[in-house]
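Team,

Forwarding the record for the chain on the shared tracking sheet. I've put the sequence and predicted structure together so nobody has to dig through attachments.
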Amino acid sequence: MGAFIRKLKDQLQHPLPGQEVQARMSPLSQKDERFSKGTAPGVRKGSVLILLYPDRNRWYVPLMERPVYNGHHSGQISLPGGKQEPEDPDRIFTALREAHEELGIDWSKVRVLGTLTELYVPPSNFRVLPVVGWTSQKPDFIADPHEVASIIKVPLEQLRDNRNIKQTKRLLSSGLAFQTPCYYVEEHEVWGATAMILSEFLEIVNRVEVEEG
């Protein structure tokens, strides 16, 4: 396990796969306007945490199901994360703080490996920085009931299995239906920005696996 983490950290220092790989899981593919609008005035900054942790000799990544509410991301599956607050020294700290607040993860035990390509999320007008970290032990998860309906513990190998990439139909607030790729894991559909972020992360993980082989 130590060799995997070391090689993953090394890969994160190399040029990232970027928008081309993110676009694989976009509802609009390469035509996605988010790739040209991320620097618009008034864009808010935030971050999310992709946390690797071991359990019974397997790597896992925690996702969270958001409660149903009157908002853009109601009921969606997401990574822990949120808005950068004025007192946050940087967005890596934001990701760790939000993971602690939402899932109870002890940030003092998280070792940051690097960051991925920023992604603009149009519905909420956020430019999100994905942060990759790991911990040597399974966290003691405590979900914030106001922000988390359930915690989804996904085996990394399940995310890496391309047979779990599906197509799903979604509705816009206007009532317009559209098709989008998603990861179908643990009986949940992971789509949109979260799927796009995971697409780049998994591309890097697969490069590490190739090197190890």
